[in-house]
Design brief:
This protein is 71% helix and 0% strand. The chain has 22 helices and no strands. The chain folds into two domains: 2-147 and 247-252 and 290-370, no CATH class; 151-223, no CATH class. With 371 residues, the chain is mainly α.
């Protein structure tokens, strides 16, 4: 799987290089790929069997569509870009939200980004196919038409993480007969504890039977003005914090036999391989032994230099300006679509922060080629 992920990445990056260079394409691509792998978070996420890398992959596909000039040629590539976007939407709910946000950005800033009407068509088509496919898959498996069968748990955990849930329960448990009211004094502190480490969900009926109650509480916090304002305030605060919160190493540690949700999933789907996984060198090795502070220092230095360079050179090349601005807006969308509805987690922004370095490298290589 990681081989396929890297293969898709390589293809998309090469196609972007072709948009900016006419000569030395292979050389520029190889150097760009090496530098992105060594100096940013890209290599960490492209080599994990996780959906995180597909957020960046979706961005690269959208850029290839945005900057395409001749739509009568290489239609098979357009089809490839659409397929990749559909896969990204299927792999993670945040990508669906980010695709909606991207289409909104292109509507609001259509003139600046010079968005061709066929770009809208491709993105809307990808959105619809991804959404319908997800509904069909869930209907086949669960016999219910739902996009995400666990969204109520994550949104409830978000309310708990922000403190809104405790505030709401303290006010309404007197009149409402919620099962979670019996445990409102024992609510866990963090989102991960609420979902994976505590028994609060089981005490509220479990993942499936808690859905009606959780959705009712979520709905009430969105229609009541006081709690709606709190939700907006907390989401904006979480988005701002998440935008600047990127750190390698988050989630990289070993698991024991009772670890949730990784080990339970492996036991359920790959029972014969669960012992091999637990005893593997990869799992027994303690990820915390790696000096992430030093690695993050190098990455942050590169990101700082890239950002300052792009700011100083903004306005010199319209095509690069469009790429740079879209990168920044995409990073904002990423923070909003993740922490804005869940919790601030370094992994979320780390999965896409490497995108800042891409226009920086392209700009540097372009200046060098012009000398």
């Amino acid at each position: 799987m990681t081989f396929i992920q890297n293969l898709i990445l390589s293809w998309l990056i090469f196609e972007i290089i072709k948009l900016f260079f006419d000569h030395n394409l292979k050389k520029v691509f190889i150097v760009t790929a090496i530098l992105l792998s060594l100096l940013t978070s890209l290599g960490w996420y492209s080599n994990q069997v996780m959906p995180d890398i597909f957020t960046g992959i979706m961005f690269l596909s959208i850029i290839n569509l945005l900057f395409k000039e001749d739509w009568s040629k290489e239609k098979y590539k357009i089809g490839g870009f659409i397929i990749v976007i559909v896969l990204a939407v299927l792999f993670h709910f945040s990508n669906l939200l980010m695709l909606i946000g991207t289409m909104l950005i292109f509507v609001l800033f259509r003139g600046f980004f010079n968005v061709h009407k066929k770009v809208f068509s491709c993105l809307l088509f990808s959105f619809l196919i991804g959404l319908i496919s997800s509904l069909l898959i869930n209907f086949t498996l669960e016999k219910k038409v739902v996009y995400s069968k666990g969204s109520h748990v994550f949104l409830m955990a978000h309310l708990n993480d922000t403190g809104i849930l405790k505030k709401y329960l303290e006010e309404y448990c007197i009149d409402k007969n919620y099962s979670i009211c019996d445990n409102k004094e024992d609510l866990p502190g963090r989102l991960s504890e609420f979902i994976f480490e505590s028994d609060i969900i089981e005490k509220s009926g479990g993942w499936y039977d808690s859905k009606e109650e959780f959705n009712q509480i979520i709905k009430q916090t969105l229609i009541k003005p006081k709690y709606l304002f709190l939700n907006i305030q907390k989401s904006l605060s979480y988005t701002f914090t998440q935008f600047f919160n990127f750190r390698l190493g988050d989630g990289l540690s070993h698991y024991n036999k009772d670890s949730e949700p990784v080990c339970s999933a492996i036991k359920s789907k790959f029972s014969y391989d669960s012992k091999s996984f637990l005893n593997s060198k990869q799992n027994l090795w303690n990820g915390f032994e790696l000096k992430f502070d030093q690695i993050n220092f190098y990455q942050n230095t590169v990101l700082f230099v890239a950002f300052i360079f792009l700011v100083i050179n903004f306005g010199k090349d319209k095509k690069l300006d469009r790429l740079t601005l879209f990168v920044l807006l995409f990073l904002l969308l990423n923070a909003m679509s993740t922490a804005g509805i869940t919790a601030v987690t370094p992994r979320f922004q780390s999965r896409v922060i490497w995108l800042i370095v891409l226009p920086f490298l392209i700009s540097v290589f372009k200046e060098k080629s012009m000398r």
